[in-house]
Amino acid sequence: MSEVSRLLSGRLLASNVVWNLVGTGLPLIVGLWAIPILIDGLGNERFGLLAIIWMGIGYFSLFDLGIGRALTKLIAERLGREDNVGLSQLISVGLRLMAGIGIITAIIVAVITPYLMDHLLQVPDTMREEGKRSFWILAVTLPFVVSTAGFIGILQAHQRFRSISSIRIPLGITNFLAPVFVLPISNSLVATTTALAIARIFAWFGYYILCRNYGRIEKRERSDTSIGLAKKLLSFGGWITVSNVLGPIMVYFDRLLIGSVLGLVAVTYYTTPYEIVTRLWVIPTALADVLFPALATALVINIQRARKIFSIAAMSQMILIFPIVAILILFSKEILELWLGKEFSDNSTEVLRWLVVGVYVNSFARLPFSLLQSYGRPDITAKLHLFELPLYVLFLWLMTDAYGIIGASIAWTTRIGIDTFLLFVFAASKIPEIKYVQYVALMTVSLTTLLLVIMWSADSMFLKIVYLIMIGAVAVLAIYRLIRNMPNYLTTLKFKV
């Protein structure tokens, strides 16, 4: 089997999705167990600050000028054309750029930390020095965090998701277990952040070992200069950078605004349900991560194959995620009360429901998002974010000021819905060969979201059980049909050269 055939093998793509789900799902399970322990051991305010540190780690892993994503696309396209000449030089230039970006990012975070602690966030006086030291430790790890995205991009282009998960699983688990294990020694965030930093550095070395042999196999090199390759990476990554910067701001800015307007206790009441429901993104992320390099390879070879990959991804995602979000909508109050107690349930139930709807809709936005970027049009997603950001910030501030954390969740979900609709419309217009399956996916998302809103109004336990039985029956039938037809799907996705 040729390398192109292997990269577009249906069995490989299905296996990669499973590995991605395991790599992100196992830490989720550990997090569900660890978060109540951390809230109890750290207290609401200190845990709110830890949540912001987690956010910082996640956000700055994307702050790479889009080079990680650009590496994935350019490598995947070359592999699709079976053109490995100059690959090692491309990889080397990309990783050097990312290392430099990481160092600059670390300096910026270190400089602005006093302002964050003293002015932007409502951090109690007794915690400010602790918060500053924790953020400075976070800054030290940022060169490793940023360049890790480059290693992951290389592995994704080669469809090596099993290798990625071999490190992502222990790293994700450590993200929750390290603070728990530190608690008996100290409830200081300095100790917790140090443990998280050490884990990130070890992960960097693991990814380095996995990637060090890629690109060394060619016998001859291109005449491309390092500057020329850097321009290629930056020309594609420039618009990716806009999305990487603005997208997470719109995802995470609500926490910073709540902390500034309502205080750290409100951050905890908002962030806890947020952490529950956004973990559902493990499913669309697992699909989208596999989808992006596969589409980047398929679009340069056969558009029909890209259409089939997109269609199967949308169908699989619907089957996997809808039953879970329906359960969260129906039993949100009971789940929160059982997990964290009545106080959390009273303060966070409506927030959880709004966020569930937003996360569900956003899950499907990953499909046209990946399609546009793999097609070479990251500027569209970036321009949408530029258009949305000022309107969203204003709306979020008004809603938070008027309705508290419930208002923040409404604003967040509203922005998500508009963004998803526009992504589908633009992707269909720019890639008309795949227009039909995109509109089918958009219509399905709209109708199932309406069904979630209807279920939201169910008050009696009897009606909730009826809805649950109906959803379970449909889900079992859909899974049965998917499994039954899986051999046909996998055969369809086989690629022969």
Summarize the structure.
With 497 residues, the chain is an all-alpha fold. Helices cover 85% and strands 0% of the residues.
Note the topology.
Elements: H1 3-7, H2 10-42, H3 44-60, H4 67-80, H5 87-120, H6 128-157, H7 161-182, H8 189-211, H9 226-261, H10 264-278, H11 282-298, H12 303-330, H13 332-340, H14 342-374, H15 378-430, H16 435-456, H17 461-492
Write down the overall mean pLDDT. 79
Low-confidence stretches: 217-223, 489-497
Order of helices and strands: HHHHHHHHHHHHHHHHH
Strand content: under 5%
Which structural class should the secondary elements be placed in? mainly alpha
Number of strands: 0
Q: Ends: how far apart?
A: 9 Å
Q: Report helical residue fraction.
A: over 70%
Count of the domains:
1
Figure out the total of helices.
Answer: 17
How can the largest sheet be summarized?
A: none
Shape: globular
Backbone CA Rg: 22 Å
